[in-house]
Design brief:
By secondary structure, the protein is an alpha+beta fold. The chain has two helices and two strands; from the N terminus they run ααββ.
Length: about 80
């Protein structure tokens, strides 16, 4: 997170990251998100990705609604 803060955003919590990802997805739709890469949506890789190595599988967003309101839940996965 220190490296991420230095280059991208001064976020301290996973919730701040989740809000940023939700905002970028809402504004720009499906696609590469600067600082996070190509992420999973509802467990699926983007349709245009052919190489699994180009997907950041550590981030999976669940689309609940496409309206303007955002509700964010963060769950840390232990490897």
């Amino acid at each position: 997170m220190d490296d991420f803060r230095h280059v991208f955003f001064n976020f301290d919590t996973y919730e701040e990251h989740a809000e940023q990802i939700a905002m970028m997805r809402a504004r720009f739709g499906e696609g590469f998100i600067e600082g996070y890469g190509n992420i999973l949506v509802d467990g699926n890789k983007p349709w245009y990705i052919t190489d699994e190595k180009q997907v950041n599988k550590a981030i999976n967003i669940k689309i609940v609604s496409e309206d303007n309101d955002r509700e964010i839940e963060v769950e840390e996965i232990k490897w």
